[in-house]
Design a protein that fits this description.
The complex is a heterodimer of chains A (163) and B (266). In chain A, 56% of the residues lie in helices and 4% in strands. With 163 residues, chain A is mainly alpha-helical. Chain A has a domain at 13-43. Chain A is elongated and about 120 Å long. Chain B folds into 3 domains: 2-76, Beta Barrel (OB fold (Dihydrolipoamide Acetyltransferase, E2P)), CATH 2.40.50.100; 89-166, Nucleic acid-binding proteins (OB fold (Dihydrolipoamide Acetyltransferase, E2P)), CATH 2.40.50; 171-257, Ribosomal Protein S8, Chain: A, domain 1. The two termini of chain B are 32 Å apart. The chains are: A mainly alpha (163), B alpha+beta (266). Chain B: Belongs to the RRP40 family.
Chain lengths: 163, 266
Amino acid sequence: MAVQGAKKPQLSKNVLGLKFMQRTVIRLEKEQNADENQRAIDDEHWVIARPVEKQEENLFEVNPSYVFCEELKFGRMSFLGCNPEIEKLMIVNELDHAEKRENEAAVDDEEMAYRFKNIVGSQKLKKKRDHMEILMDSVHEHSSRKKNKKNGFKTTFLKPADD
Amino acid sequence: MADEMELDDEIENEAIEQAPEVNTLFMPGQTIDNLKALEGTLKVVLGPGLQIQGSKVVVTKVGILRFKEPNVYWLDSHQRRYVPVQGDHVLGVCSMKAGDVFRVDIGSNEPAGLSYLAFEGATKRNRPDVRVGDLLYAKVQTANKNMETELVCVNNQEKSAGMGVIRNGGFVFTSPLHLVRKLLNPECVLLKTLGKTLKFEVAIGMNGRVWVKGRSSVDTIAVANAIMSAEHMTNNQIKVMCQRLSHVLSTVPKEDLEPEEVENIT
């Protein structure tokens, strides 16, 4: 316990067992533990030094699932009411899938917000009176369009500007 | 179906000016250098049959390179041996009850483990009723080459969602894995067309096992045969076959179509 190398004078067990020597006992123990820890770290420090060259791997992502790649369906199916539970499940899955496809094709929220801002923003702060004017204008336009039709002038839908 | 896919991919390639040999044959050991993703995606996703070795992408299966927008590449190969992949739904047979797990044979290199708690409504007290020899439809939870495959019979909301023990007869057969993928492809018309005239139920596992149950054993056999023979058919050929099948089945005398108990054959 109290061994501290051959050179250092050692305190005998009997002495260390005395009550007033307890602080020394704890100190000696601490020193020994520190030595041992140091040795353990030294042993672990032998690591192979390898060049770091794995940056290109970040370009790829591995997903070994055919279900993901080929967008395969769920494997349990039932037809003509053979198993109503499974048929319910099929309908739910189909709806989920359809929703996903729709979301892909539809205008996303950001674009919607952007367009809406452009359309609404121009008239947002106008007063009620202005709204009425716009309304009247559109009514007037409508009637004039009718006239145009009578005159043989073909009206067409105008595509809104894209920006 | 395949032709359409090829055409689409060709157009795609021209549009983004890339030259990976999509829709051509590859052998194991070949490397592919020029895999590119469409703009707006960061990474290229490598599907089954492709592996990263160092900085190269190496082919590990024989098959045709496929591409899906925007950034997925994989190898479409023919094989019969199942290697578990996380997320696959598989059809297995309970081969042993070992304490708190069931051993389930899913046709892979070793039996998979299925915890008795991984069933809908299962608690420590309330064990699921699974017996040795029962057919199970389950999802692969962990698939790792260094560890035992683990199955579950619940989804992430603790619902069974079509998984669990399959009872009440039917017929199980093993098919090549590419046939299973063909059946589950959204563009394949086989099951839908059969389902218009025949009343039946199927459970298809990605491990190549297919369970079929019809109204009678004649129906069951008919559906099983139709599936097995559809391996190399195009969608049009499948439609013709289904027409002929339903015509033939309509001539079968009624007493043969009586429902009867069929033993599980695995």
